[in-house]
Amino acid sequence: MSTSQYHLRCRECGKIFGNQPRSLCEDCFSPLEVTYDYDSIRPLVSRELFASRAPNLWRYRELLPLPEGFRSSLPTGYTPLLKAPQLGLKIGSSNLYVKNDAVCLPTLSFKDRVVAVALANAREFGFDTVACSSTGNLANAVAAQAAREGFKAWIFIPSDLEPAKVLGTQIFGAQLVRINGNYDQVNRLCSQIADEHRWGFVNVNLRPYYAEGSKTVGFEIAEQLGWRLPDNIVVPMAGGSLITKIKKAFDELTQLGLVEPKLVKFFGAQATGCSPISTAIKQYSNEIEPQRPATIARSLAIGNPADGHYAVKAITASGGWSEDVSDAEVVNSIKLLAESEGIFTETAGGVTVGSASKLIRQDRILPEETTVLCITGNGLKTTDVLAGQYEVEVPIAPKLREFEVLLENKLSGVPTFAGERPALTVEV
Ligand SMILES: *Cc1c(COP(=O)(O)O)cnc(C)c1O
Ligand SMILES: [Zn+2]
Question: Which of 244, 286, 300, 330 has the smallest number of CB atoms closer than 10 Å to its CB?
Answer without folding.
Answer: 286
